[in-house]
Each structure stands twice: as structure tokens, then as C-alpha cells.
Write a structure and sequence with these properties.
12 strands
């Protein structure tokens, strides 16, 4: 069962310390202990615009994230609060509150750009919080969105001949929610009432013209439309009189503007019911340990002067998880074999059947816990480990059988050994007595259960060790003629040869069984890999269809607005997306 951490309040996740981003190890511990799927909501905006108040409401608390009441920015870096999701059982809602953008005390906006980029990279819902209406000033303050392609790479090695298109970002980027605080306009257009979403859509309309001013007007709007196809807008009235804003976290709802209280409730309800679980490319759900890895990978890249790369972060995470998946699969195999296997087995096939059943489950465990296994390296590692495990079990089985058979022979043939020491068979007629006694004891040995795969070989080795003694008794038995002795010697040689032939046949049969087992193991790996690849292909195609639909809608809108250059540029991205979908239909990689 997935584990969940209940936090009483927020904790700093990434500290913004003198232009250096520092990860808080205590916050990482909290993430690493939470194995539930995460819904990650990050909020970004200018400082002193009430971001923290909304996040506290999402946490279901009045206090938590620092509100402050002065013109200073209170939240530094990125703070995290993990709470049980109020609507999705067995999910955790992770709230990320970021330091206010545009804080004059910071001197430059370099850190603002990185905080903005990290909030997008880590979240499944990205909330941009601003004051008043969506005017050009509000768009200018959102200039960070125009820098995203300079701050983030989607692929580790994009084609040098072409810039990464927006499809690469769409598969990673969160949903976009714009919250407008202290909104005082009537929502109308052409004298008709409109919704907040329609207001946002209208505000993102492009302006015809080729001047620098026109380009500056259009660029942030184009970026929002391209990178965030799913957009939502909420407006909020002023919560209370300006003088009471400093006491906002202590005021009851009855003391606040009723419209504002309802607007906050509507916003929270939307987030709870519509914010998606954070996923990676391929539909991989993000839990605490996975988010921990993403945080470390992105921040380390930034601190090293590199651009955080989404593909690299996923591959780094896959390395960790696929290695763990191999260990989980091997542990499951060991557990199953430990519970079901009793050595020695009567036959090799009995051991192989147990191995095959445990191996099948182990591969299933690996498939469930692995992703992005490039060139199937980790699955091949698992296959090699399981093959080695089988070889070890075969050796253990042979030793257990040998030990049991040797002990049985020693116990059963003790009377014969004693008689030989006493010379009981060194007399006339002694040879037939010896052969008769040997056959009786041999039959007793053969009737013993659970002797294992070495039963015949150990018996024949023992009997062969007695051939010289049998020959000596035969030669000294005066009741037998020379002819009878010759016939008996020929019989002994024939028996020995027959036994040797039988053992060779058994050995060849065992070798054939092992060859067949390896082929069946390979087929099981291929079967489960093929099934997984088909599931992933279907999921990938569904995601690509979704992206294609979004791009076609955006292209239609651009054509409606008569932005033909932008439409042609988007057509190139649509064509690339369609080519990739065709490649995926044809691609099939197996072990």
C-alpha cells in the first residue's frame, strides 16, 4: 500500500540563496517517503499579490504559507506543502508556493526566470496570479513565458537544423490557470456578458502588424497559446477593505466579501476536480521519489550553468527506477522460489516448471515498475540474472540430490560393507550371495522417495566402485566354472555399458530441457515486452492525437485571425508530429 506523509505546514523545498538554488534535504526526505501519485499545483506571480492565501485555501487551512502584510516579498525560493488530496483517494496534493516575481530587493530577474521555469517543470497545474485586468502591462509582466525555450530543453539532442517545436513542450507542460485578483471590470464584450474563460481567450487575441510594438504585443500571447493549450481563468473581487488585508488569515469568511468567498470556493473546487496527476512522457505517474529525482536533476543542471532538460530528467529517473525494478523482480523471484522449492526435486522438469512460473511473475514485476528502458538494457540484465539464478538452483539441486543419495547409499549398503569386511562372500557360492544382496539393497535404494536428479548417477558410481570387489569374489568362487565366470563377466560389462548409455541419454535429455528452457524464457521476455510496448504505443498515440488536435485548433484560430506566417510555421510542427506518429506505428523493438 502506498505511503503518505501528513505535513502540518509547508517547508522550503528550494531555497533561493544569493543567486544559488539550494535544495532542502528535509523536504526531499518527505517526498521520498510518499509513494502515492501526486497532483502538483504551483503558483507564480508578482510579489504581494496574494498567492499564498490561495495556496492556504487549497491546503484547507487559514495559516501555512506566509502571507505577510508589507511590500516585502515573504516567500523565498519554492515552498512545499503535501496534503491528502480532498477528492482523489490515495493521491497527494502537493502545493508549491513560489517567491514573488519582480522583488526589487533581488536586483535582477535571473532568479525569477529560474523560479518560473522550475514551477512549470515540477507542476501538473500552473497558476499565474496577477492583480487587476489582463492588459498589456499584465502581459509584459508575464515576459518569463517568452523565455521558456531559452530556459528549458525538451530533448537532450534536438536536431541541429531545427528549433524544438512546441509539441515537445506540450507533452511535459502543465495546465495553465490565470487568477486575476481585485478584478473590478464587468465581464462584457460587445455589450454581452462573457465568462472569465472567454475574457482570457479574448485577451490572447493577436494584433495585426509587423512593427516591433506589434511583435511585443503578440509574442507572450502566442507563447501562452502554444505552450498551454488547456487554459482557465478565475477572477476575484477585493476580499475586504484595504486596511484589513493585513489580518486576512485571521478573518472569518463572514468578515470577507461574500462574492470573494464564493470565487475562492469555485477556484478550489476546480483545482480539486480538474488538476491532473503529474505525469511524465509515456503516461508515467509521478510519486514522491520521482518528484524528488526531478527536483535534484533540474536544480543541479541550473546550478551547473546548464539548461534543465526534460528528457534528461526522465532518463535519469528511469536509470534509478529501472535498476530498482530489476532488484524488485529478483527479490520477488527469490521469494517465490524460496516458498515453493524443496530440494532436491524428483526431476529437472519439476525445477524448471517452478522457475518458469516464478520467472513469469518476476518479469511482470519488472514491467510494472520500469519505464524508458533504452535498448532494453535493464530487461536484459534481469534476464541474465534470472538465468544465473536458475543455473545456481540447478547446481544446488544436484548437490542436494548427491548428498541425499550418498547418505542413503551409505545407510542402505552398510550391511553389505560389513559382510565384505568379514569375508562372508569369500567362499564357494559367495558370488551369487553377493550379487543377490547387492540387488536387494539396490531395490531398497530405488524405492526411497525424493532422491532427486542424481539418483542414478550416484548409484552407478557406487556400484562401479564395487566392480573390482565383485570381480575378485567371482574369480575366487570355486563353485563356478571358467565358462560361467566368463559369462558373468560379460554380463557385468553389459550392465555397466547399459548404465553408462542410460546416463548419457539422461544427460542429453537434461541439456535439451535447458536449451528449451532458455528459449521459453526468451519468448516470455519478448511476449511481455511486446505487450508493454503495445500498451505504451496506444498511450503514446492517444497523447499525440491530443497534441495534434490542439495544434490543428490553434492553426484554425491563427488562420481565422489571418496570421498566415504563424499558421505556416505551425503547419511544419503539425507535419513533424504526423511523421513521428507514423514512425511509432511502424516501430517495434524486441530483445
Amino acid at each position: 500500500m502506498a505511503s503518505q506523509i501528513h505535513m502540518l505546514g509547508p517547508i522550503c523545498l528550494i531555497e533561493n540563496n544569493d543567486r544559488q538554488l539550494v535544495i532542502n534535504p528535509e523536504a526531499l526526505k518527505i517526498l521520498s517517503a510518499n509513494t502515492e501519485p501526486l497532483v502538483v499545483v504551483a503558483i507564480v506571480g508578482l510579489y504581494r499579490t496574494g498567492k499564498s492565501y490561495l495556496m492556504n485555501k487549497l491546503a484547507g487551512k487559514k495559516k501555512g504559507f506566509s502571507l505577510g502584510s508589507t511590500v516585502q516579498s515573504h516567500t523565498k525560493g519554492i515552498w512545499m506543502w503535501c496534503v491528502p488530496h480532498p477528492k482523489k483517494s490515495n493521491h497527494t496534493l502537493v502545493l508549491l508556493d513560489t517567491e514573488g516575481l519582480g522583488d526589487v530587493e533581488k536586483g535582477d530577474n535571473q532568479n525569477d526566470s529560474w523560479i518560473f521555469a522550475l514551477a512549470i517543470l515540477l507542476s501538473s497545474t500552473f497558476v499565474y496570479n496577477s492583480m487587476g485586468t489582463i492588459n498589456q502591462q499584465a502581459m509584459d509582466q508575464l515576459h518569463y513565458v517568452t523565455e521558456l525555450t531559452d530556459r528549458i530543453r525538451a530533448k537532450s539532442s534536438p536536431d541541429a537544423s531545427e528549433v524544438e517545436d512546441s509539441a515537445a513542450f506540450l507533452s511535459f507542460f502543465p495546465d495553465f490557470v490565470w487568477t486575476l485578483r481585485d478584478f473590478s471590470l464587468d465581464l462584457e464584450a460587445d455589450g454581452q456578458p462573457i465568462s472569465a474563460d472567454q475574457y482570457l481567450e479574448k485577451s490572447l487575441t493577436l494584433k495585426q502588424g509587423n512593427s516591433q510594438k506589434d511583435n511585443n504585443f503578440n509574442l507572450p500571447r502566442l507563447c501562452i497559446r502554444k505552450f498551454f493549450p488547456k487554459k482557465k481563468c478565475f477572477i476575484f473581487d477585493r476580499p475586504t477593505h484595504r486596511k484589513k488585508l493585513s489580518q486576512l488569515e485571521t478573518l472569518h469568511d463572514d468578515d470577507l466579501d461574500a462574492e470573494f468567498v464564493q470565487q475562492v470556493a469555485t477556484f478550489c473546487s476546480y483545482i480539486f476536480n480538474n488538476s491532473r496527476t503529474k505525469t511524465l512522457s509515456g503516461g508515467i505517474q509521478v510519486n514522491g521519489p520521482r518528484l524528488e529525482s526531478l527536483v535534484q536533476t533540474y536544480v543541479n543542471a541550473i546550478n551547473c550553468g546548464d539548461l534543465p532538460c526534460m528528457e534528461n530528467a526522465v532518463l535519469a529517473l528511469a536509470e534509478i527506477e529501472n535498476s530498482a525494478a530489476v532488484k524488485k523482480a529478483i527479490a520477488h523471484y527469490d521469494q517465490q522460489m524460496g516458498q515453493k522449492l524443496q530440494l532436491p526435486t524428483d526431476t529437472l522438469q519439476e525445477l524448471l516448471d517452478l522457475h518458469r512460473a516464478s520467472e513469469k511473475e518476476a518479469i511482470e514485476v519488472f514491467m510494472k515498475n520500469s519505464f524508458k528502458d533504452v535498448d532494453n538494457l535493464f530487461q536484459k540484465e534481469l534476464a541474465a540474472e534470472l538465468e544465473k539464478k536458475l543455473d545456481d538452483f540447478c547446481k544446488q539441486n544436484m548437490k542436494a540430490s548427491s548428498d541425499r543419495c550418498s547418505a542413503l547409499l551409505e545407510d542402505i549398503f552398510t550391511p553389505l560393507e560389513e559382510s565384505l569386511k568379514q569375508g562372508i562372500y569369500s567362499k564357494p557360492g559367495g558370488y551369487h550371495l553377493f550379487i543377490k544382496k547387492t540387488q536387494e539393497l539396490k531395490n531398497t535404494y530405488l524405492q526411497e522417495p525424493r532422491k532427486g536428479v542424481q539418483a542414478e548417477e550416484i548409484l552407478q558410481a557406487y556400484l562401479k566402485s564395487k566392480e573390482s570387489i565383485a570381480d575378485a569374489i567371482l574369480q575366487t568362487d570355486q563353485t563356478l566354472t571358467e565358462k560361467e565366470k566368463e559369462i558373468e563377466m560379460q554380463r557385468m560389462k553389459a550392465e555397466s555399458a547399459e548404465a553408462a548409455a542410460k546416463m548419457l541419454e539422461e544427460m542429453q535429455a537434461k541439456n535439451q530441457q535447458m536449451i528449451e528452457q532458455k528459449e521459453k524464457s526468451h519468448q516470455e521476455h519478448v511476449k511481455q515486452l511486446t505487450e508493454k510496448m503495445e500498451r505504451e504505443r496506444i498511450q503514446f498515440m492517444a497523447e499525440q492525437e491530443r497534441l495534434l488536435d490542439l495544434k490543428l485548433r490553434e492553426q484554425a484560430l491563427l488562420q481565422k485571425e489571418r496570421f498566415m506566417n504563424e499558421s505556416r510555421q505551425l503547419q511544419k510542427e503539425i507535419h513533424n508530429l504526423q511523421l513521428e506518429m507514423e514512425r511509432q506505428k511502424e516501430q517495434c523493438t524486441i530483445l
